[in-house]
Design brief:
Layout (H helix, E strand, L loop, with lengths): L25 E4 L6 E6 L6 E6 L4 E6 L3 E3 L6 E8 L4 E8 L1
Antiparallel strand pairs: 1-2, 2-5, 3-4, 3-6, 6-7
Amino acid sequence: MKLSPGVTVTVSCKEGDGITSSEPVVSIFPNPAISEINISLSTSEDFEIEMLNIAGERMMLEKNKRTIDVAALSAGVYFIKITTADYVTTEKLVKQ
């Protein structure tokens, strides 16, 4: 299946469907943020956090850091890319 950029496909599964996932659960909070964000990751694997601005420019790169100071960032939308050895996800962050 080929998707256009910006298209998200969501598949809902109910318990008992026989579908399991080994993908870590990622939570970034608070969102919107003012001064600091926390990253909750349901794995103990090493991970990398890359923050990109709306133009795709790298604003920061950290490893295994679960609290990030965002106070110096301008207000706007950022993307938090989290990478483990076998998993990549990108979450949207709104900075106030």
